[in-house]
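Problem: given the chain below (94 residues), write out its structure.
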Amino acid sequence: MLTLFLGGFFMGYQKISITVPEEIFKEAKEAAAQRRVKLSRFVSDALADKVRKSKEEAFIHRINEIFKDQDVSEEQRLMARDIADNTTVEELPW
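Solution.
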């Protein structure tokens, strides 16, 4: 295993073996070459992106499940209205 110091933390690498359709393999090799990165880096970035998106989707799903509760939904609606009625645009944090 190779260890790389990256952005303040050590990032280990693990070798894996995967099977992909030939056409996807060819397209991935071409895309990596166009970006001038190694195929392993390209695949690693793609996996990292997929994992991030999967986590985001799970988080959104959990939030949506919470807001299915009518009491929670109503409380949030009332809070939003109260903030809108009592806050100027200049006071908003963004």
